[in-house]
Design brief:
about 210 residues, mainly beta, 4 helices, about 45% strand
């Protein structure tokens, strides 16, 4: 299952009239659009309030919703969007917003079908972006769980971006897709930040 996660829960246009979110508005899952529904809940979610899920310690915040936990910069913004068959949480740098963020889509592992090929990732990204190039296509791990890691570069509205996807990471009854994006010109700053976030991830088993 490859879900090209919308880069923002809010589809706001940028100065040129089109943001990355608007070009990413089609969340793809095996060719089927993920339909947003305010009334659909992830059956495996823990119904905590934001205050209970997020704690602050020094220069970091910790997120823990009973399905996943990790640390991220204390000044970053958190949003959440319910979609068909699951939910997506977004953690974004306050100045760059959707152009520099981590998105995590969580659904049921029973929905896993197969891993996509490198060509399929290229085709999917090319539907919304230009100059798409797959830099890395390999196996990756999140908290010891295997998945497909894809690192790509592309242009959106004239800006070059790096996109890192950890796809089909399965732990127990849950399937996780991690989607990272940041401007290529800011790689020196944000590559380590996202590496530290991923290194802190703990996938929580459902009893």
């Amino acid at each position: 299952i490859f879900v090209l996660i919308p880069l923002s829960s809010c589809d706001s246009a940028g100065a040129d009239g089109e943001s990355q979110a608007s070009s990413d508005s089609k969340a793809e899952s095996n060719g089927t659009s993920a339909t947003v529904s305010e009334n659909i809940s992830d059956p495996y979610s823990i119904n905590n309030s934001e205050d209970e899920r997020i704690t602050t310690k020094n220069d970091k915040k910790a997120f823990n919703d009973g399905r996943i936990s990790f640390e991220y910069p204390a000044n970053w913004k958190f949003t959440e969007q319910k979609v068909e068959d699951g939910s997506t949480v977004y953690f974004s740098e306050p100045e760059l917003g959707e152009d520099c963020q981590l998105s995590i889509y969580i659904t049921a592992s029973e929905l896993y079908v197969r891993d996509n090929t490198e060509e399929e990732y290229t085709t999917s990204l090319s539907e919304d972006y230009t100059d798409v190039s797959i830099k890395e296509f390999t196996k990756g791990k999140i908290d010891g769980c295997d998945g497909t890691k894809v690192t790509a570069s592309y242009k959106s509205n004239g800006t070059e971006f790096i996109r890192i996807i950890y796809d089909n990471v399965i732990e127990g009854v849950r399937l996780y897709n991690f989607d990272i994006v940041y401007p290529e010109a800011e790689s020196e700053t944000y590559e380590k930040i996202f590496d530290d976030i991923i290194a802190s991830v703990k996938l929580i088993s459902k009893d």
